Amino acid sequence: MMASVQRDVPSRQIGDLTFLDVSKRLRASSILCMPIGSIEQHGPHLPLNTDVVLVEEYARRIIARWGETFDLWQLPTLAVGLAREHDWAPGTLSLSIQGMTTFMRDLGREIVRGLPARNLAIINGHGGNRGILEALAQELRADFGLNICVLHPTTWSELDTKAEIPEIHGGKNETSMMLALAPNLVRREQIAQLQRLPDNDAVRTTILDQAVTWPWTTNEAQIANLGVIGDAQAASAELGLSLLKQIEEMAGPIFKRLLDRQHLVRS
């Protein structure tokens, strides 16, 4: 019996191409996908690189599902973002606002110089990056002519506004996805020591209130327990796989809308 021949799926990682490949395989309408994560505390049970593990999996799944349809290409991951709300904890690393701004503007300039693609989809794996990415999206579009959007997949996953404990950091959703992806990195024995938040209203008024912005940190006793805001004890690998599938499917219409908006960007 002849052994079956396994065909390798062509890589859609920019870094796997040669310089000769770039002009052959990328076009102006190609979409560059850039994962951005964070190195920060995620409670006693999850590793510092949780956001990096998750955002790279979001990108992998999204590109596997939609790469051929929308000509998606993955840029290298930015593993360190803005994480000042966690900098009380050993191991947390954070860029400054100036540092992240400089990096992203330099990246925009280099994309326009070195690649034919003019569409950029940032896949953000850390909530603390959201504010600066919203502001930078305006600059990258206006100053470099990039047609851009920022995806925040963690906000798509089972958004339950009536949940007794808001899922913000290191809780049910993130723990479930890590149990599905990297169970060896989850310290299950540490989950049992997590306690329910004493005042859930403090989370909603300090973090979730859209009318007022407050600086906050995850060592404030009213809003977090051991750095966690959420219910990690309710996590399961089954839920994690379901959330990942949901994220994968929800990305498709966003890429279609991004391409539909190309004509709005000044060349």
Explain this structure to me?
There is one protein chain. The chain is an alpha/beta fold and 267 residues long. It has one domain: Creatininase (Rossmann fold, 3-Layer(aba) Sandwich). It has a four-stranded parallel β-sheet, sandwiched between helices. Helix 2 packs across helix 8, helix 3 runs parallel beside helix 4 and helix 5 packs across helix 8. The longest helix is centred in the last third of the chain and has 24 residues.
Strand content: 5-15%
- Strand order across the largest sheet: 2-1-3-4
Kindly report the name of the CATH homologous superfamily: Creatininase
Tell me the CATH topology. Answer: Rossmann fold
- For the record, give the distance between the C-alpha atoms at the N and C termini, rounded to a whole number: 58 Å
Second CATH tier, the architecture? 3-Layer(aba) Sandwich
CATH class: Alpha Beta
Radius of gyration, in Å, reads 20 Å
Count of beta strands: 4
Number of helices: 8
Sheet of most strands: 4 strands, parallel
Tally of individual domains: 1
